[in-house]
Batch of 4 targets.
Target 1
Amino acid sequence: MLFRHLLRIRWYRIYNQKKSRDTLPSENESYSKKVKREMMVGFFIILFTLGLGLIWFIYGRNAMLFGLLCLAGVLVPALAIILLMKLIDYFLKR
């Protein structure tokens, strides 16, 4: 019973905090961008280390080097598209 009461008070205080409506979306947006960036970096780290490590373990060094070449070949157009989108976004916001 006491725990419910304390929890209710806590949520009431969080819900009724005086925050500017202008700062709240920018905080959420920056946090969202940070989380997305961290997840993408983590994905590529796992892809390169685990993926290439398994290729090396199963098929050998030459196959791993070829897999690295293929991943680099995929990464170049992907980065070019991301750069193009950033440039378009920059010019449209200007």
Target 2
Amino acid sequence: MRKASKRRASKRNASKLSQQDLDRARRYAKLYGITLEQYDRMFKRQAGKCALCRRPPGRTRLAVDHDHKTGRVRGLLCWFDNHKFLGRGKEDPVRHERAAKYLSSTFDGRKI
């Protein structure tokens, strides 16, 4: 869809949105470069669940996860996975691969 037609579609849909949704639409556009429609498509693509833990959201909606260096939107995450698991600069894939190996290891320190 062209930018001009995206803007028209957004303006058309904006008249149907609550003030809270309008604020959220502006925030998503400014911070991540996505529309509410794109958020909804990601939500449906993930079956309404966190991309990592596969749980449905609790009291808060799923957060938009993005690469802070490139701006690429990766998906939607629950609060815990967004802030504790990936947050605070822990976006290093090598570190997560190492953690996955560590957790699936059969090593038992009681047998050393």
Target 3
Amino acid sequence: MTDFQTLFYVGVEIDPNEIRPIEGRFLVASKQLLKSEWKRVKKGELTYRLTRIAAIFVIVFGLCSSAIYVGLIEIPGVKIQRAELASPDPSRSLELKDKAVINGLR
């Protein structure tokens, strides 16, 4: 860049033959800079990468938890007991809610 600045001082005659070698060096340096910046941009900033990893973890955890709860996946030694909390008989409904709390479902 300094080569270009010295070449373009006011009052100095510009010769195209002097510009060509400076232009070539400038193009090589700019290609290297752009390539390294493109790799950095393509990879993403640290905050973006961490957020992406956290989002993937949350989604996978949610899907696995849902599959376990629904019963698509069974874990050996773990039994999920589901109780019906809504009952047409109001007196029985309270009994079922208490049972669910005792069993740890709430």
Target 4
Amino acid sequence: MCLPQDFSRLSNRYWPYRYVTDQDAPDLLRLFEKVTRSGRQLSVMAHFSHPVELEKPVVQEAIRRIRMTGANVRCQAPLIRQINDDPAVWADVSHPQRQLLIIHEHVLTGLG
């Protein structure tokens, strides 16, 4: 199975069913497990820009299933004016990320 470069980055936010209910979800998760059992480190990059994105149970289940394979879930997110450009929003988003064992990588900035 060959995965496109951006496969993991947006799938857990926009289509978490990819890891939960899609027909080939078990096959994909077995592939992740095979990779991690071989001694390789596997990370799925997520983009969560606002705490609301982490509230859906299906998102939490997708993250749990990915982590159960031995893979890490890492997060990077863009700074978006009037959406998450307030430190309080980042405080609110970091708590569920820590609870779900998501590794926060960095914030992508481009505000002018």
